[in-house]
Specification:
Number of strands: 13
Shape: elongated
Order of helices and strands: EHEHEHEEHEHEEEHEHEHEHE
CATH architecture of the largest domain: 3-Layer(aba) Sandwich
Radius of gyration: 22 Å
Structural class: alpha/beta
Helix content: 25-40%
Oligomer: single chain
CATH class of the largest domain: Alpha Beta
CATH topology of the largest domain: Rossmann fold
Largest sheet: 6 strands, parallel
């Protein structure tokens, strides 16, 4: 089998296969075709891929010569015609928001796997790409917020007085949210957390966060640990409570998403205006519409 890896379009810096992955697949008697400079943005050189046993080719050669094509984001529609119908493509296609891409793939007869839709079950956890990416996002979000915030995260005591710790509000206690809690607490911030799933309360508290609970949340045990869409009455109470806590927060990290649907709006424009000058909002749900009305 010939497995192809293409170079992602900027600003994407990830690459679908590392040199270490090439070695593993070569051990299975696969031929690996890598587009020139495919790993450059991820700090992997063509020389490293070559040493691992990959063939460094042009983009057109990789597209036309692969039996299995690996990517992060979907190809531009105009390039899909360069792939043979017998080819299988695997990546993150976000099919609920990219309807045109799905229709194009159907029209060309290409078999595609959207890896972010792999269920979060014990049997499928080896293929779970969302959890690892969410962990990185939650970690990085806090560091970005700490860098942008014009004050310290931890409490400081000096002869000049005491500086109170920063207050961080995290919306959503999934993988990204839990990682953000852990990092924010390690940096010394006071952390409050909102999530519609009461089941995550213990996890939040074990990491040192204060759980904000709104009564009346709808949960679904069949949702695989994800949040489900809520009633309008609940969303109204939710927005009011978030507004109260957001107005006292220095940082908001929003991570709330509902699979297959637009991200819920949790931070209204008036809430942003009520926050202190210099406050920071990191919206990790931006790719699915955003949790902030200003995103």
């Amino acid at each position: 089998m010939k497995i192809g890896v293409i170079k992602e379009v900027q600003p994407e810096k990830r690459v679908a296969l590392t040199p270490a992955g090439v070695r593993s697949l070569k051990a299975l008697q696969c031929d690996i075709l890598v587009e020139k400079d495919a790993g450059a943005s991820a700090f992997y050189t063509d020389h490293q891929y070559g040493d691992a046993g990959a063939h460094i080719l042009s983009r057109s050669e990789v597209l036309s010569g692969s039996d299995l094509l690996l990517m992060i984001n979907p190809l531009p529609e105009k390039e899909m015609t360069n792939i043979t119908p017998a080819c299988i493509v695997a990546g993150c296609f976000n099919p609920f928001q990219n309807e045109a891409v799905v229709k194009k793939l159907q029209h060309t007869g290409i078999t595609s796997f959207s890896m972010e839709l792999v269920p979060r079950t014990t049997r499928a956890q080896a293929m779970d790409i969302l959890s690892s990416m969410a962990t990185i996002a939650g970690y990085k979000a806090v560091l970005e917020a700490a860098s942008a915030l014009p004050r310290f995260f931890p409490m400081f005591m000096s002869a000049a007085g005491t500086i109170k710790p920063a207050r961080v509000l995290i919306l959503g206690a999934g993988v990204a949210g839990l990682q953000a809690i852990a990092v924010a607490r390690k940096l010394g911030a006071v952390v409050e957390v909102f999530d519609v799933r009461a089941a995550v309360k213990e996890e939040v508290m074990s990491l040192g966060g204060k759980f904000i609970e709104v009564e009346g949340a709808k949960e679904d045990s069949a949702a695989g640990g994800y949040a489900v869409e809520q009633t309008e009455e609940f969303r109204k109470k939710q927005r009011e409570l978030i507004h109260q806590h957001a107005a006292k927060s220095d940082v908001i990290i929003a991570t709330a998403q509902v699979p297959g649907k637009k991200a819920p709006i949790l931070i209204r424009k008036e809430t942003v205006e009520a926050m202190n000058s210099g406050s920071v909002i990191i919206d990790l749900a931006a790719s699915s519409g955003g949790n902030c009305e200003c995103t």
